[in-house]
Amino acid sequence: MAKRPKSGIQKWAEEDRPREKMIQNGARTLSNSELLAILIGSGNRQESAVELSRRILHQAGNNLNELGRLSILDLKSKFKGIGDAKAVSIVAALELGRRRKESEVDKKIQIKCSADIFDAFYPTLADLPHEEFWILLLNRSNTVILKAKISQGGVDSTVVDVRIILKMALEKLAVGVVVCHNHPSGNLIPSKLDLDITKKLENACKSIDIFLHDHLILSNENYYSFADEGLIKHEKQLSI
Description:
Layout: H1 18-25, H2 32-40, H3 49-59, H4 64-68, H5 72-78, H6 84-105, H7 114-125, E1 132-138, E2 144-152, H8 162-171, E3 176-182, H9 192-207, E4 211-218, E5 223-225
Parallel strand pairs: 3-4
Antiparallel strand pairs: 1-2, 1-3, 4-5
Helix pairs in contact: 2-3, 5-6, 6-7
């Protein structure tokens, strides 16, 4: 039997259209594949938009964080029917979701332990395919006064200039610094470079009476805290 041709969402029965379902019942009633189908609008000759969306999600382990790791080129090369426009729509929507999570986290927060640092950086770093190095600058009550990216690198390293961190801390009159970077591989064991930059930054901060409270290495599911492991030692502790 020949396969029946698939049509765009606008030609489906009304009760099967994700757009109409959203209008009538709200976005929360739609599955992830239906939401993704709205973004891509149509499928290919063998699959409807929803069927193609299900396959895309399946390839990502039905995990939106994993889907967020796919680039425009990944989406175009792996899925028939996904061109520039559809790939850009998917990546843009996931980036908006990431920024929404960041906005929720970036409200004035107080850092009391390594878990608080993890919560502050997870929405930003969890699903990135490359390394990024970020800082939190803290006031005397350990409240965040600035969250900023210092550098971006490749899949297994990024360059960090300690002078930039110190300059930003002095400009903001910070009394405490927290640093964090991600390991896309999921391996949380610090590299020699990680250990060296932490010691260098700790000594530099001490020289100007600023405390380096912690350095976190973050993966999609967990983290490694230099302070918790006793690799950063000073009199002033994060807990208050």
